[in-house]
Write a structure and sequence with these properties.
This protein has 15 helices and no strands. It is mainly α and 394 residues long.
């Protein structure tokens, strides 16, 4: 019989992973469809659509540090359950929002609930995973996002093509509600409340996690630039539809996350991160240098490998640098860097493409990713190796 303390596939881990899958599915269901709804039904201009879509990320960035502090002070369970309930409710309210202002306000609060749920469930899963299988566990848990990314947009487009907008919002609400229900059956690990945790800058941010989070931020600049403009890039270069990019990306991401987690547990992060960042830089450079269908496929594969390694590895690293009572701050710091990088990447790449064109912009973004690799080797990795030996109770 497997030792209970090293058992990964516990009831709590399985239910939390399924809940995260459904949460992500309800998110990706709306990602390609909401802009269409805003233009066709609410007659929004492209500029207003950008604001309404972008405010979601802004709200998530704003709330994440406070979420980390709150779950470290008050515990995970009630905060996660309440935030998930509101997340499901807000999807349903899209159907009754009839003005752009209403939609903007609703989108802001929906982004807040997304920031709280994703920060909290990523902290809870680290509480549940055995310490010796942390990398492997985070890798499996992280499969929820690429699976949802592969299925969600396709499902959303099928619904609006064959049914109607009300059915889209109803489907999203039902999926998110099921995610909420699963949380009710999870036995959360015992939470030992700290005697005090004042609301200060140091309580909102994990200083130990900052170097790794900065590497994440710089890396996600490329991700934001790719995701935001890959369709326009393909149209500009007459490549055709970009669905193959996302399909290959999701497949390679899923495979790599499983493998990279086990490698992290046995050998640590050094070579993993070097391979991952090199893959991201290569994928971005391929888009710039080989603007053809084969380049699109190769780039999707390299991006899948790179991000399949980077995110679970960085999450395991920052959670190794803080005790259990500070995991909320560690995860919120990393997620804030992730969201900020995506937003900056979209803005930065937009201006770049106006000035130097699509292909040259992606070549430049590959250099940005290489700077993240240099910072990791010179600064983040030495700091991690120095601190990880000092602590902690998991």
């Amino acid at each position: 019989m497997q030792d209970q303390e090293s058992r990964l596939w516990s009831k709590g881990f399985i239910l939390l992973t399924l809940s995260s899958l459904l949460l992500s599915l309800s998110f990706y269901l709306l990602l390609p469809t909401l802009p269409v709804y805003l233009v066709e039904e609410l007659k929004a201009s492209s500029g207003k659509v950008g604001w309404i879509v972008g405010v979601y990320t802004f709200a998530a960035v704003l709330i994440r540090p406070f979420t980390g502090w709150a779950i470290d002070l008050f515990g995970r369970r009630m905060i996660l359950i309440i935030a998930m309930a509101f997340f499901a409710l807000f999807i349903g309210l899209y159907a009754v929002s009839v003005t752009l202002l209403q939609f903007l306000i609703l989108r802001f609060f929906h982004g807040i609930s997304w920031g709280i749920t994703t920060t909290t469930n990523s902290t809870v899963v680290v509480d549940i995973i055995p310490a010796k299988r942390k990398g492997e566990g985070i890798g499996f848990f992280g499969l929820a996002m690429p699976l949802a990314m592969a299925v969600g947009p396709l499902l959303g487009l099928v619904i609006i093509e064959n049914l109607d907008w009300n059915m889209l919002f109803l489907t999203g609400t039902l999926i998110a509600s099921l995610s909420f229900i699963l949380l009710l059956f999870i036995r959360f690990p015992h939470f030992k409340r700290p005697s005090s945790l004042k609301l200060t800058p140091s309580s909102l941010i994990s200083k130990r996690s900052l170097p790794i989070s900065l590497v994440m931020l710089i890396t996600m600049i490329s991700y934001g630039g790719i995701i935001s403009f890959i369709t326009l890039y393909a149209e500009h270069n007459k490549i055709g539809k970009t669905g193959i990019f996302f399909t290959v990306y999701a497949i390679m991401l899923a495979i790599t996350r499983v493998v990279s987690g086990k490698v992290f547990d046995k050998h640590g992060p050094s070579m993993l991160v070097i391979i991952g960042l090199t893959a991201v830089a290569s994928g971005t450079a391929i888009l710039g240098g080989f603007p053809y269908f084969s380049g699109l496929v190769a780039s999707g594969a390299m991006f899948g490998i790179g991000f399949g390694i980077i995110f679970p590895t960085f999450q395991a690293m920052v959670n190794n640098l803080e005790p259990a009572s500070r995991r909320g701050a560690a995860n919120s710091t990393l997620f804030t860097a992730l969201d900020t990088g995506i937003g900056l990447g979209a803005i930065f790449t937009g201006y770049l493409m106006e000035g130097i064109g699509f292909n040259q912009s992606y070549l430049l973004l590959s250099i940005v990713t290489l700077s993240a690799l240099a910072f990791f080797i010179l600064m983040a990795l030495p700091q991690y190796q120095k601190l990880k030996n000092k602590i902690f109770s998991f």
